[in-house]
Design a protein that fits this description.
There is one protein chain. By secondary structure, the protein is α/β, with parallel strands linked by helices. It folds into 2 domains: 4-320, Thiamin diphosphate (ThDP)-binding fold, Pyr/PP domains (Rossmann fold, 3-Layer(aba) Sandwich); 327-364, no CATH class. Helix content is 43%, strand content 8%. It is built from 14 helices and 7 strands. A 5-stranded parallel β-sheet has the order 1-2-3-7-6, with helices on both faces. Strands 4-5 form a two-stranded antiparallel sheet. β4 (193-194) and β5 form a beta hairpin. α6 runs parallel beside α7. The radius of gyration is 22 Å and the shape is globular. It starts with 31 loop residues before the first helix and ends in a 7-residue tail after the last helix. 43% of the residues are buried. Bound molecules: thiamine diphosphate (TPP) and magnesium ion. Magnesium ion binds next to β4. Residues 90, 92, 131-133, 160-164, 191, 193-195, 255, 259 line the site of thiamine diphosphate.
């Protein structure tokens, strides 16, 4: 194995292929057409991410966590997965959800506040967004231990950020997964920031070293290189399926937008900070590579742009179609059985709603005490 501090890179920022002694073989089968499909995926998810950000600015979403800049990390890793594998994401993995087949309409209700989650995890083998930093890594470790008990050959991947590596949950998840050889890929998108805190405050060493501390194979990858991310994630998933236990991947990338739509990054970083990362853009280098192979004409670019616009229009239409649920439905499904505390809270909230002249029964919803 090569030095883990040197990120694995298979495509340079100027679009040249680079041979890596350990990982190039994992993408030997990837044709130029396949690379064009990865390019299209990245263009589409960047476009729908921009549309969702616009929808929040227009008051149609309560919040959005943009993935802008992290397209290669998400598309490369998600396209390495098999349908039976299970994904435990944080709140930023819209690109992963897109690759899992989550519909455009299902990407927004959680952020619009019209549903407590976006989709049925069983439909896509992908859990819904997790806001509690790092909690999803524990779910992944437990699921992976269950996979071992079942004797199944599926793998699990969990996504989390650089900041999350300082959470106890992540330490516990990695400890259990390593000790019980759970088939889990711990995929850390080191986007350099945890809201306004730089990654240098999380650790004095590269984040990848944390995997080594648990005795896991550990890979540091250029997270803006979709081919390299695909290769290392395939390698880690293969090891997991063969009974080799967990792997830690640090995908070195950059969050080009705000943390969420509630954040103003100009308060804590400068345009100079961004400039170097704009040069390392994940989409641009693949465009250069494809053009060097005469595999991306102006017509292709226009067609891909149209498909991205259609996806954005689909996301918008799906979002606007999600109606507000009745206010009192907030108390439904908290418990499977009736619960006296929930009943009391529902009654109190219904009485509060009645103090407003302009809340029609259809908005308030179910009558007090009705489960
Ligand atoms: C347990 C917990 N503590 C704090 C927060 C508030 N919080 C939300 S996002 C965030 C930063 C996470 O940064 P990172 O793990 O790097 O992920 P990124 O947002 O960069 O993808 C924090 C502290 C939270 N949601 N959960
Ligand atoms: Mg981060």
């Amino acid at each position: 194995m090569s030095d883990i501090d040197e990120p694995v890179q298979l495509v340079t920022i100027t679009g040249e292929r680079h041979i890596h002694p350990d990982f190039s073989t994992y993408v030997d089968d990837v044709s130029v057409d396949d690379i064009r499909r990865l390019y299209e995926d990245m263009v589409v998810v960047r476009r729908i991410d921009a549309e969702a950000t616009a929808l929040q600015r227009q008051g149609q979403l309560g919040l959005w966590a943009p993935l802008f800049g992290q397209e290669a990390a998400q598309i490369g890793s998600a396209r390495a997965l098999e349908p039976d594998d299970f994904v435990f994401p944080s709140y930023r993995e819209h690109g992963v959800a897109y690759c899992r087949g989550v519909s455009l309409a299902e990407l927004t209700p959680f952020w619009r506040g019209t549903s407590l989650s976006g989709w049925n995890p069983g439909d896509y083998n992908m859990a819904t967004p997790a806001i509690i930093i790092g909690a999803q890594t524990l779910h992944a470790a437990g699921y992976g231990m269950g996979v071992n008990l079942d004797g199944a050959d599926t793998a699990v991947i969990t996504y989390f950020g650089d900041g999350a590596t300082s959470q106890g949950d992540v330490a516990e998840a990695m400890g259990f997964a390593a000790s019980f050889a759970a088939p889990v890929v711990f995929f850390c998108q080191n986007n350099q920031w945890a809201i306004s805190e730089p990654v240098t405050l999380q650790t004095k060493a590269p984040i990848a070293h944390r995997g080594r501390g648990y005795g896991m194979p550990t890979i540091r990858v250029d997270g803006n290189d979709v081919l390299a991310v695909l290769a290392v994630t395939r390698a880690a998933l293969e090891l997991a399926r063969e009974g080799g236990g967990p792997t830690f991947i640090e995908a070195v990338t950059y969050r080009r937008g705000p943390h969420t739509t509630s954040d103003d990054p100009t308060r804590y970083r400068t345009a100079d900070d961004d400039a170097d990362w704009i040069r390392r853009d994940p989409i641009e280098r693949i465009r250069l590579l494809l053009e060097a192979h005469d595999a991306l004409s102006d017509d292709d670019i226009a067609q891909i742009g149209r498909r991205a616009d259609e996806a954005a229009a689909g996301l918008r239409a799906g979002c606007l179609a999600h109606a507000d649920p009745p206010a009192l439905s907030l108390f439904d499904d908290v418990y499977a059985e009736p619960h006296s505390l929930i009943d009391a809270e529902r009654t109190e909230y219904a009485a509060y709603l009645e103090t407003f002249d302009d809340v029609p029964p259809a908005v308030a919803g179910t009558a007090p005490g009705t489960p």
